[in-house]
Design brief:
By secondary structure, this protein is an all-alpha fold. It has helices at residues 4-16, 50-58, 62-80, 88-111. It is globular and about 45 Å long. Mean pLDDT is 75; it is low at 1-15 and 20-27.
């Protein structure tokens, strides 16, 4: 077991002599003002059991769940109508899907700022 007084003395010494303090070689070149490194690009959606999904869903108001479902469907429709050579009907369908997505996202953003669905996001 470490003596807390010795740990405090060691911290004071390392703060007084930054060259003597051990540094991790990956973090040595990073400035303190930079945001922390994250691995958000490595996140993989993991399926959750139905009971857990039902428990999560029971904590969210029904109109938010409906808006989330509508936003997901609208985003899928927007992704379906891509490309420079869309006919007039497809352009109208894409505009309608964008309108539905914006309406659902307005409800989701009012509930929590990070809930809106983007048309190109994978989840």
């Amino acid at each position: 077991m470490r003596n807390p007084e010795l740990c405090a003395v060691h911290l004071e010494e390392s703060a007084a002599h930054p060259a003597a303090a051990p540094q991790h070689h990956l973090l040595a070149n990073r400035s303190e003002r930079e945001p922390p490194m994250t691995a958000s690009h490595l996140l993989v959606p993991v399926p959750i059991p139905d009971r857990v999904a039902a428990l999560i869903g029971s904590c969210i108001p029904p109109h938010i769940l409906q808006a989330e479902f509508d936003a997901d469907c609208a985003a899928r429709e927007v992704r379906r109508f891509r490309g420079p050579l869309l006919c007039a009907e497809d352009r109208a369908d894409r505009e309608q899907a964008l309108s539905d997505l914006a309406r659902a996202n307005k409800i989701l953003a009012a509930h929590h700022p990070r809930l809106p669905v983007l048309p190109g996001s994978p989840w």
